[in-house]
Amino acid sequence: QVQLVESGGGLVQPGGSLRLSCAASGTIPSFNRMGWYRQAPGKQRELVAHITSAGRTNYADSVKGRFTISRDSAKNAVGLQMTSLKTEDTAIYSCNIEILRTWGFEVAAWGPGTQVTVSS
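Given the sequence above, the corresponding structure tokens read:
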């Protein structure tokens, strides 16, 4: 069983920066994908970015050029550096880990989430 714990959320002014971290523990297959999702009030959860254990990344168009995802595979940890934050980035950010199956990636676990609020 895999468990995830996020940290680093908080309140920041527009244009500011924030870094989120997520650490995984438990039995984790060597090839996996870790990612960040967010859900704003009244909206569906959406992908922010994810990164495979091989280092391949994918970003939502809305965060390209502003957010950077990174990982420490030895520690099974993933980070999200957020810069030039906008009020519309306000949401609960959750990390997850996916395991590669024969049919594709399957979610193995979600973190509880951390609140990010961008406001002046």
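DSSP finds no helices and eleven strands in the chain. Try to locate this feature in the token string yourself.
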